Fold this sequence. Notes:
28% of the residues lie in helices and 19% in strands. It contains eleven helices and 18 strands. The strands form four sheets. Strands 1, 2, 3, 4, 5, 6, 7, 10, 11, 12 and 13 form an eleven-stranded mixed sheet that branches. A three-stranded antiparallel sheet has the order 9-8-18, with no helix packed on it. Strands 14-15 form a two-stranded antiparallel sheet. Iron/sulfur cluster is lined by residues 273, 362, 373-374, 377-379, 389-391.
Amino acid sequence: MFHHKREKTDTVTVALDHRELYRLPWTLPDNAIAWLEPTMKCNLACEGCYRANVNQHKSLDEVARDLDVFARYRKTDGISIAGGDPLTHPQVVDIVRMVAERGWKPILNTNGLALTEDLLLDLKRAGLFGLTFHIDSKQHRPKWKGKTEQEHNALRLHFAEMVARVGGLTCSFNATVYQDTLDAIPDLVAWAQEHIDIVHVMVFICYREPAEPKQFDYYVGGTRVDMAPLTYAETGQRIDISAPDVVAKIRERIPDFAPAAYLNGTEKPDSFKWLLSVRLGTSKRIYGYLGRKMVELAQVWHHLWTGRYLAYAAPAVSRWGRSMLLLWPFDAGLRRTLLRALRSPSLLFRRLYLQSIMIISPVDVLADGRQNMCDGCPDMTVWDGRLAWSCRLEECIHFGQFARTVPKAQALPEAAKAEVVALQRAR
Length: 427
Ligand code: SF4
């Protein structure tokens, strides 16, 4: 669980109107992704990690039971195989095969540390669809300590090139955004463009940690609990960086950067928990962005065709940018892109790539204690035979269920504070 308010410093939040974007159609029972955790073990200790690092793998039977839960409760296109780091699991190839055999796209979420090209080939033969590499400068990687976020682009490129050599796999990168790495985002976006032919998705996850202990108490049922032993402890980092802040930062370098679709918060319909932009271009130039209609068309078409919402497109689809321009009558973003492209006719002979940029703002706790989660959370995992938010699994492990945030009396608005005081007196 994570909180919201700490002093805003140097970001200028841009006005984004959710009513002008497409609300991704993902829901609890019918989603694009689900989140499998076959292990709690990791070979790194990232600062922003929300999972305890425990040397404990699930057996293949336990993994099968988790997959049964997904099959029972949730239509999904892809399964993110995460953890811990899934490559620490000695049977990761079998797990990928199990997911693929059930008709889902297996996506490995890994820090890449244990990845070799031979292992990647084995994973591909087992049915792997793609990889999401979590790489950022706060992972304390051996040999990368003290390197900047931008210097980590060399490591990102190492993995992107390995995936491209093996071929036929989607390649995505995650980076957690902290107050002191926010300024690096435009450089990461520029790096992704430079490698648009082999990097398909770039994800920025705003850092979160537990709600301010001075403002909130935590309850499980009627019992007050201590959050301190949980992994997501206080670091002093800002925890209110949101998707509009990240967009503002990107627009300092790319003024026309244009999100097209979003997931709202469960408590705030106009908050952006997942914010998707899809750009079309080459390594030299971005010609434009898909508009909301095109994202809607892709989701609806995929659902009509396959019965599932689209999670990750095959890498070949990322090369369809030019053909996609033919759909200009449906989408304002494509019309703008086409007009720009027509001004450089040589483009007709060049390949145009698609690349997604997703910004995720995990849990925010509102002043009244409500927890603003991602509505239609794609990263639902399994806890005790049911679906649970993977970002807060530690609460289930420690307390058997999620904890509620309750504002302390002094943090309440005046009217409520008077009410609480009166109640206390009456007792
Ligand atoms: S609510 Fe779901 S999608 Fe949002 S941060 Fe938590 S696990 Fe991820």
